[in-house]
């Protein structure tokens, strides 16, 4: 063994040790991030984000129900997700056309709720009833599985605020209308492209 070999071996051992430290740090960071994510992922999101959903067994729901985590969003082009794929085709096409135009103007455009299963809608309504104390009050914010336009694939909730503002100005060019006065994020295909949107209902219970 030459001196050169020994030096090189020491050097590579030092590199190995440094790499190990880096890996440990990455692992630690990922662990913390996953932990934080798990904390933030508790509960389900509805139009009104009822806090009573916290503690619900969200594992019973998945992407097949159109479930999108509270505070999370998906791309309007995520056709691989049932939340997008099971939207009524006309609405989905209009929403994607509008999203392309908005994004071209540097507007962030995401979907916070799309199609939902009836079972998922029922969980949202039950949680809202627990939150607001009565079905009458809850229904101002969350529709029943029988009446929800999300369950039929005829409604999408759009974020962020800039996209809501953009849609309030340009949505009707694509036939997209805000249908409830108390939900500036909730859009339905409610007119012909370039047509006039119908008068807004005060809230979901008014429909
Ligand atoms: Zn909605």
Give descriptors for this structure.
207 residues, binds zinc ion, alpha+beta, Muramoyl-pentapeptide Carboxypeptidase, domain 2, 4 strands
- Helix content class: 40-55%
CATH topology of the largest domain: Muramoyl-pentapeptide Carboxypeptidase, domain 2
Mean pLDDT: 83
Q: Give the structural class.
A: alpha+beta
Q: Using only CA atoms, what is the Rg?
A: 23 Å
Backbone shape: globular
N- to C-terminal separation? 86 Å
Domain D-alanyl-D-alanine carboxypeptidase-like core: 87-187
Keywords: Carboxypeptidase, Hydrolase, Protease
Organism: Agromyces ramosus
Protein name: D-alanyl-D-alanine carboxypeptidase
Topology summary:
Layout: H1 3-40, H2 82-85, H3 89-104, E1 110-113, H4 118-132, H5 135-138, E2 156-159, H6 161-170, E3 176-178, E4 186-189
Antiparallel strand pairs: 1-2, 2-4, 3-4
The site of zinc ion (ZN) has 7 residues, from loops.
């Amino acid at each position: 063994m030459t001196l050169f070999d020994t030096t090189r071996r020491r050097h590579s051992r030092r590199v190995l040790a440094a790499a190990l430290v880096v890996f440990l740090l990455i692992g630690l960071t990922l662990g913390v991030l996953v932990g934080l994510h798990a904390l933030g992922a508790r509960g389900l999101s509805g139009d009104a984000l009822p806090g009573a959903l916290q503690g619900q067994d969200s594992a019973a729901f998945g992407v097949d129900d159109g479930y999108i985590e509270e505070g999370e969003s998906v791309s309007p082009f995520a056709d691989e997700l049932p939340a997008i794929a099971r939207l009524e085709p006309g609405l989905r096409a209009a929403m994607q056309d509008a999203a392309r135009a908005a994004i071209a103007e540097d507007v962030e455009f995401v979907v916070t709720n799309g199609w939902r299963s009836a079972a998922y809608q029922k969980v949202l309504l039950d949680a809202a009833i627990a939150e607001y104390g009565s079905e009458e009050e809850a229904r101002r914010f969350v529709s029943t599985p029988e009446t929800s336009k999300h369950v039929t694939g005829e409604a999408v909730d759009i974020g962020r605020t800039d996209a809501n503002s953009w849609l309030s100005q340009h949505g009707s060019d694509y036939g997209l209308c805000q249908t409830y006065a108390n939900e500036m994020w909730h859009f339905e295909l409610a007119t012909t492209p370039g047509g006039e949107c119908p008068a807004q209902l005060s809230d979901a219970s008014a429909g």
